[in-house]
Amino acid sequence: MSKAVVLLSGGLDSATVMALVGSEGYEIYALSFDYGQRHRVEIESARKLAQSYGALHVVVPLPSVSFQGSSLTTKELSVPKREKLGEGIPNTYVPARNTVFLSFALGFGETVGAFDIFIGANSIDYSGYPDCRYEYLTAYEQMANLALKETVEGRAKVKIHAPLLSLTKAEIVALGLSLGVDYSITHSCYDPDEEGRACARCDSCAIRLRAFAENNVVDPAPYRY
Amino acid sequence: MSKAVVLLSGGLDSATVMALVGSEGYEIYALSFDYGQRHRVEIESARKLAQSYGALHVVVPLPSVSFQGSSLTTKELSVPKREKLGEGIPNTYVPARNTVFLSFALGFGETVGAFDIFIGANSIDYSGYPDCRYEYLTAYEQMANLALKETVEGRAKVKIHAPLLSLTKAEIVALGLSLGVDYSITHSCYDPDEEGRACARCDSCAIRLRAFAENNVVDPAPYRY
């Protein structure tokens, strides 16, 4: 059985990726990161998702020093509301986030013998993050294959899989629904309340709600409309 | 004043890089990593070095999950002694170590506005690590420039500096001595005793001792010969 590392945030995209990877019969190693994000409730979603797909789940506590200056990790910045959608890279951008996440996946993957790394990056209907683009992911893969003992000695090849990259958010939801994803346990909101309910107003909520609406399905996740 | 991030292990190479960066007038942000390495005493060396060059020093505690299967982090594997020198990639190899370190430097660097990243990687007289080669570092730099908001929007350019890459270990020691590096506070041994004294027998000690001998200088670091 082939092994895969799945970057599992607990959100809509990574839940859909988990379902895809599960349907392809991989032995799954799921990685989640606790990096001081406001929406840490997503880690609990990740835990439930990993369990439902029989994945080995590791939560990596990252020191907050690496991820400062983002509204996702700093109380002084407020998460932008939907009127700002589409105006360049928003302040929810976290410096080098996917680079750090993929690098842990790379090291952990080599340790367990998994070189297929899955990430829910998505360049359509996205928030404008540079590390969610095809050019970036391709460059990462090239670098990765020069970095590891197993690849340099010719026994393995790292493949960064981003199966959602060119799907619209509505297409992702449609795919997930066809794979039976339980979206009620996923979490996407950047600014949840203390009970973990989504705000329905941040970029992430706005994009998600529109995608469900386009599928004529009510989003089953909890909101504080 | 330009800002630089220096990956500072506390060893001979990174101490020499610190001296070089200091001589070039950068404002220095030094990053060290606590990843469960046996030779954690090197972090204390890093602290002293950072202080002596007026650098802001951050020690990043990394979860050990990322770095398993190496003799540097696992008690079950023994550090190879010098008779093995030069036979391929040794078991002191740590999966994706420089990739993880550089990725933290990238995120931290963008946060503080530092895009010149210095690493003491060295491809001559080295231990055969794939992530210490020119091809790898070049690929990393290309990826990095596609990853960050500041670079993608054209306000900065990431440069991965590896000034020791094509120097022999003896040339590195000569350079450091000319820059006044206090090598007595550096630590290179993979297998120190409880007092932090170097073993004089592991790859790292063997390479270091030979380099000092070639400079006709006695290595001032403490050994348990």
UniProtKB/TrEMBL annotation, chains A, B:
Its EC number is 6.3.4.20. The keyword ATP-binding applies. The keyword Ligase applies. ATP binds at residues 8-18. Pathway: Purine metabolism; 7-cyano-7-deazaguanine biosynthesis. GO terms for molecular function: ATP binding; ligase activity, forming carbon-nitrogen bonds; zinc ion binding. Its cofactor is Zn(2+). It is an enzyme of class 6 (ligase). Belongs to the QueC family. This is 7-cyano-7-deazaguanine synthase. It comes from Ferrithrix thermotolerans DSM 19514.
